[in-house]
Design brief:
It is a single chain. The chain has five helices and seven strands; from the N terminus they run H-H-E-E-E-E-E-H-H-H-E-E. It is α+β, with helices and mostly antiparallel strands and about 120 residues long.
Length: about 120
């Protein structure tokens, strides 16, 4: 099992390296719901603040949850980057994107969200 996770961990650290360089710590965890569904969480934590990419087991969609400045934010990357999502969807019209392609796309969207040295209110410096 460790052998399978290692390349995934390396891929995440490579694609989201800009967050790790900014002082974030990467964690991979899951949360079991009361309806016996699992939510797999890619978490980038910096102090008390964090950015989560959450996927419900069996789900094809990943949601973004941010805890910044003592409050939860639920920014929709799909609404903020309609043009990029449409291009990604068209590029994968006949083939389903693999996990690495999805992670690379999400990393690029998060990188584009950096403004004024912060990401959703979390300072990067």
């Amino acid at each position: 099992m460790e052998r399978e996770k290692q390349p995934y961990e390396e891929t995440v650290k490579k694609l989201f390296g800009f967050l790790l360089d900014a002082g974030f710590v990467y964690e991979y965890t899951y949360d079991k719901g009361s309806d016996s569904s699992c939510v797999y969480i890619l978490r980038f934590r910096k102090g008390r603040d964090f950015i989560d990419l959450r996927t419900v087991s069996g789900g094809a969609e990943r949601n973004l949850v941010v805890f910044s400045g003592g409050q939860y934010l639920f920014p929709s990357l799909r609404l903020r980057h309609k043009k990029e999502f449409r291009a990604f969807r068209l590029r994968h019209l006949f083939s389903r994107p693999d996990e690495t392609e999805r992670l690379a796309f999400e990393a690029a969207l998060l990188r584009s969200e950096i403004s004024g040295g912060s990401l959703f209110g979390i300072p990067l410096g």
